[in-house]
Fold this sequence. Notes:
The protein is about 35% helix and about 25% strand.
Amino acid sequence: MRFLLAALCAVLLFAMLPVTQATAQSGNSADFDVTKVTPSVVGGGSPGEVVVSGTLTNRSGRALTGIQAHVERGAPPTSEPAVQRAIREGSSGITEPASAPIADRLEPGRSTPVQIRVPLTGANSLQLSQPGVYPLLVEIQAGRTGVAETQFLLPVTAVPGQPPMRPAQATPTSLIVPIVDTPRLEREALPGGRAVLVDDQLSTSLAPGGRLYDLVQAISDSAPAGSSLGNALCFAIDPDLLITAKAMQGGYQVRQPNGSLVEGIGRSAADLWLTKLRQATTGRCVIPLPYADADVVALGRAGLPDLVNGAMDGSQLLSAPDGLGVDPRDVLWPIEGAIADPKAGDLPSTMLLDTRAMNIPVGSLTPVKLRGSNTTAIPIDPLMASALDPNRDTQQEVTQPSPPGGGSLTSQNALGALAFRATGGYIPNATSVLAPPRRWNMRADDLRGLLTGLSKLDADGLIRLTALPEPNPATLAEADLTYPVQAGGSEIPREVIDQLAAQNFKVGDLARSSESDRAQTVEPGRVTTPLRNGLLHGVSSAWRGNSGAAEDWVRRATSPIRDMLGKVRIEEYPGTTNRLSSDSPIPVTVVNDLPFTVGIRFKIPNVPGVEVQHDFGGGLATVPANGRRQFMLEASAQRAGRFMVDISVTAGAGTPLGATKRMPMESTEYGALIPWLTGIAGAVLVLLSVRRILNKARARRERKTAAQQAADAAQTQPLAHAVTGTPAAQRPTTEGDRDRG
């Protein structure tokens, strides 16, 4: 029986082996990375075929043989939701697959370039007969088993031999170009120090071939200033990235995992990138993002309008001559295109908002005026946002670079979605604003392909490249804000913001207690503003949903704050004892190593038995920049003895500056006890005088008594002499008498 069961199991296992192998083969055992689709937009002057180029990599553990590609065309979508489904999920093919051989054999772990040529019409083709937006499915097979596949949209404005598809009105189109990165700057180069970055990854991103370099270079190559495409672009720049690049340009250090510091290697890359960025933004539309792309909504909801206003100071950095020297537009593009309250701080009068963040009709892209304010809102095209960002509506929407693996297919989908918007999804009196993901991860060639496709759609009359709208609130309908639940759920937690606010109070206290020094050229803001900006790193959009990283950055920002506050301190006391007396005040020297004058207060806790003056007229005592000042503290003791007095200095609102110093003091004077002691001594003298008088009176009475007794005794002396024949003894009767004798 056991033999039969074992045999049956063996048969079943053997029977399952082919099924298991087939399942593995039917999965994606290879990667097909599409790097280019030519042409990206099929028009009247396009060649009669589409070329899909890319790289095939064998990820399986066996060799792939008989590799070929099959390309199918789907039906063009007829609605906006259908376009979004085609982008996210693909669509079923309706044509016979067009086949093309790739390679006879591909070993495990090896890659091979792929170029698939598919005719537009005729045999073994896409079988195009009219313009439209077509989903394409490319499947790579090894033998009869699919090993990889990819899908994308192909916009077709004209089929060879037919007139182009031209809508009655072209769709106005603008493109936002985000220049954003994850916070890297742990410490700015404050006076007396050097800039410190948490890592050196930015040196790669700013160098040729890096993400940020490619963004700027592709714009410069494909959309020069003054061109219709160049005028339709608007750079959205994070001032923190600009400050970080400038810090790298001046030489910087990089924090290692063990806490040590090494020299950064991105100085020349930062210098080159800043030069190219200045050239690319000259004469262009530029809007500043909040500093470090801070979560101004979370700050506003926490009741911190001062930090909101501080985060919006970035426009000054962009316009400064040593910045970009541009005149930025007063426009806010909040995280996820949503804001809870435009009155949370001194926010711009124009905002780029997601359509889900406003109570507007479905499908509307017309600017509106936010009810209860004079703020206008420009809707972001949701169809284009989905096409440009594969991470949209996921937890990685604003935190991770997107598209994850480059952007060739994203570029194709965006062009397809825009072609649909211009034809089947046309919205009158509206501008289609293309807002890519915050950390746009487009390779240079992919971005060039997107920009070339935009120019092609413009030339074919489907879109009209135009500048970002500047709506007049007086002419707009009103709408209410509707803050999305998912946006609120991913805000920086209140606990982190409370920690940040506590540190920001210290920075503000130092700023309010300081003033410029005529002998110095450094304004207090040169120190306090970078300290505040460092705190804003803790509420960056990069940490949405990651409270641990947000807390870590608040801690990182706390260290330079502590260092700056410690530069105003009481000079180290030698340890000798101060002797308290009425005419010898205690000298205390306060040192200020900051390059501006700082106002201070002394803080001296009560010590029983001693009183130290620490109020100088009720105001702040000042210590000059990079100098010191000695203060004479009047002290008095209520009793003799040794005392330990703690002395510290604070800013105007009580923020501690430097460390507390413990000073030993000694008093040999009685102070307030002297009147008491004098009174007691007087009373003792009176008592002693009374005692002496009483003693003298008693002595006189005793003498009288003794004299009387002596007289009585004298009357009896003759008789005694007669009896004894000897004279009477002369004895002193009292001590007083003895003294007198």
